[in-house]
Each structure stands twice: as structure tokens, then as C-alpha cells.
Amino acid sequence: MPSLINVLMTLLGICAVVFGVINAFNVRGIVTRRVQRLHRKLELNHLASGRLGPTFIPITGTAGYLRFLGAVMIPFGLIMTLAGMMLLIRHW
Predict the structure, then answer these.
(1) Contact (CB, 8 A) for 42 and 61
(2) Does residue 1 have a pLDDT over 90?
(3) 53-88 per-position pLDDT tens digit
(4) Cα-Cα end-to-end distance for the chain
(5) Cα–Cα dist 38/7, whole Å
(6) How many other β-carbons are positioned within 10 Å of the β-carbon of residue 75?
(7) Would you state the pLDDT for residue 28?
(8) 69: Cβ–Cβ under 8 A, 6 or more apart, which residues?
(9) The pLDDT of residue 32
(10) How far is CA 4 from CA 1, 9, 23, 57, 83, in A?
(11) Which residue in 8, 33, 11, 19 sits closest to 69, CA to CA?
């Protein structure tokens, strides 16, 4: 009988792979829209505080960084999925 942790580990691994692919390959422009929203929010906060200089964009607010995180999530999600599946098969 498989335990809850084995099923949860498998499902979370599959979710990590799916979200990694979506972010790494910019499916439907999701990373681009997220970066645009972040830049708009930072610019509004910058203007609301009365600063006149250019808006500072952190490295975590760039599309390249988000796509890199997606590319990193894919292999770790695969490892997590495979480990969960092996545990499920072992306890079956």
C-alpha cells in the first residue's frame, strides 16, 4: 500500500517539471508578462516615493533569471518524480 508521502512526492515532482517547462520555454509569454508586471510595480513604487532617478531592477526581476530557474526546476522535478515512483513501486 503506497503511503501519502510517496504519492505527494511524485505529484510535486510532476508539478515541478510542468512549471519548469512553462517558465524555461516561456509558454504563452508567461515569463514576459510576469516581468512586465514587476517592472510596472517597481516603477509605480519608485514614483510614489518621490524619487526622480532611474528605477532599480533587481536580478530576480529579469526574464533570463526566471527562465534559468525554470530550466533548473526541470531536472530536479524529474529526479523527484523518479524517486517517488520508485518508492511507490517498492511499497506496492
Answers:
(1) yes
(2) no
(3) 999 999 999 999 999 999 999 999 999 999 999 999
(4) 5
(5) 35
(6) 12
(7) 96
(8) 23
(9) 96
(10) 10, 8, 28, 42, 14
(11) 19
Rounded to 5 degrees, what are φ and ψ at 50? 85, 10
CB 87 within 8 A of CB 1: no
Q: With helix as H, strand as E and coil as C, how does 4-36 read?
A: HHHHHHHHHHHHHHHHHHHHHCCHHHHHHHHHH
For the chain, the residue count is 92
> At 35, which amino acid appears?
V
Q: What is the pLDDT of residues 5-61, one digit of tens each?
A: 999 999 999 999 999 999 999 999 999 999 999 999 999 999 999 998 999 999 999
pTM of the model: 0.85
Q: How many helices (H) and strands (E) does the chain have?
A: 3, 0
